[in-house]
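SUBJECT: protein chain
CONTENTS: sequence, structure tokens:
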Amino acid sequence: MDAPRSLWTDRPIQTRSEDRLNFADYADILADIILTADTPITLGIFGPWGSGKTSLMRLVAERLIGQRTPGHRRARTVWFNAWQYERDEAALWRSLLLHVLDGLRSDDLSEEDTQQIEDWRMRLYTDVERTELGSLQVDWSAAGRAALKLGLSFIPGPGTLAELVKLAQGNISVVEDLVKAFRRERVEIHRRRLSLLEEFQAGFAHLVREYVWSRNGLLVLFIDDLDRCFPARAVEVLETIKLYLDVPGCAFVIAADREVIERVIQSRYGTEADAPIHGRDYLDKLVQIPFYLPPLEEEQILAYIANHAPEVDQTGRLIFAVGLEPNPRVVKRALNIFRLLSDLARRREKAGVMEPVVPGLLAKMVVIQTRYRDLYRDLQEYPILIQDLEMAAREGTEVRQPVAPVPTETGTLLEKYLRHRPLLRMLRIGPPFAPLSREQIAAYIFLVRTTGAEGAELSSDLPSRRWTDLLSNDPVRLRSAVEAVQAQGTAEWYVDALARVLEPGSGASISERLSAATALGYLGDPRNLDEMVDIPGGSFPFGEERRPVMTMAFRIGRYPVTNAQYARFLAANPHYPVPYVDEEWARPYNWDPVTRTYPEGKANHPVVLVRWEDAMAYCAWAGVRLPTEEEWERAARGEDGRAYPWGPSFDPTRANVRESGIGGTTPVGAYPEGASPYGLLDCAGNVWEWTSTPYDENEMVIRGGAWNFFAEDARTFVRERARRDHRSHCVGFRVATGPTVPRLDRGSE
């Protein structure tokens, strides 16, 4: 059994021998400033939680103690941890003054000054006991009368007015007597307090001048953890320094998060424009020398980990250095978690209940749990999110979309985290999550979860959550739901429900319809995508000029030919090349030349990257043909000559064009409200469609517009052209059957 390794505590640096963060240089400079500056002076060490403020103050104090060189003063240090007394019933200002008095006590004091300090201490302690510790004395004559009215011969134990009033049981005259008794006593205490503080102001200045400053000495008061106190109590400390301790011979070093202190001041004095004091102005007046503790640099973190955790390899160190917040306390905590989980994983591996853990992947998950808690919670429900983020990080700005890149109202999970550059930098380092299965990724997620309670429990209403995810239009949530329902064997139920979302009149939003169609691309689309529509013969207004043109009756595909349909053709013709273009722009649409499969999840997308010859080869195999451009326009336009299949004006919820903001192909039939008068779908936008009509000797007419063209190009009468050998990610085709008539050459029209 491996011996347990010790973890690192959160104890601040105490001496230079413990300094692993190169704070000594800062400490030397700050100590020299304190020893040589005019006094009184206040130095602020500012930094966020865990940045090393206490450690730096300890090093400054160590540098000051015993320091005596020509031109320098001998420092006498007093340390006051404000937060340590936060929960003490005594006021913080009293605790601070008591600490200062302890710092002034020495054998050099005269008998009179020694007695004065003891008198102040006794009076401070007495007021603490009388006002805060529950033994407040009262005007016994008044309280005694109240006791007699209650039928009591003495005042029992309770030491607060509230407790005594409770004993009065609503007797108004008794309550009045008690209130008067307590009020008189509090007025007396307040009077004695003012008298004490007036004496203290003058007496403290005398003691510092006589026993410190005149002897080339310096009283240095270190105040730590002020920003962890409640606002009112933190202000007490700051105002005590300014009102009673700010005398020649004194230096003050305050460690705090400046933003927190500014908020504390504003909570005390208000945030309105006419407030007497603002947080920034207050600190600027109080602190003459602000020092902002810089965040750790990557090299510092690398060296720190190398010294503290030599078992972490170079890749792991780099993952922590790049991914973690540059904060000493955060780094220590992450290393502790990593060490604990590494030991746990080894035990489970030896017991045969867990696969070996890759240290680099575990380090990444620890960073995510430590710094990106929202992401960690999302990963518990959607483990594949880490793979998509990783791919986005490794490929830069080009983000792989595992499903149709359709817009959502609130943004996607992937978009939510792409703005975190340190996260993306970290994911580029070391081993990838890409080869892992959902279950393998989950092992890392839930192993890390054993160190804390981050993340809510998954909802028990699984069917409802899965359905919400399937209609979320979020690639990560959708794909996670698809994998889950496939694993649970419930895909058939969801498929039928998703198909109903695509029916006209379902009431679903465009986002929900696109999401449902995308989900069917994974789960299997039950619609009859081979369906043909009957188009009657007759005359219709053709072209922008609306010239009458006659067509014979024919049949045409309701949908463009999909990847799944084209895959059947390729399966029957194993030597025919798959749609593929060796260019970056074609990557999301390329088929795998080895497995001869279309991109994942795009079974019901229109096939693209096909030449005119490829479309003709498919038609020959399927026993169909390409429509003429006149046939295509009649089926899309109807007999009334409309500009768009659905009517005279454009509607972005009825077609996939540039204005719709999709940015890629979408599953066929996802816009049922965009149907033509004969029920054709996707004849405006999504992809241009090859026709059998030549444009010239080398080019063919294409119709319908596409996802990356503007809406005006998707009008029913717009003609475009493409070379026969052209492969594009925005050109596909649909098929037709039935008689055709010879078409007049354009030049003779």
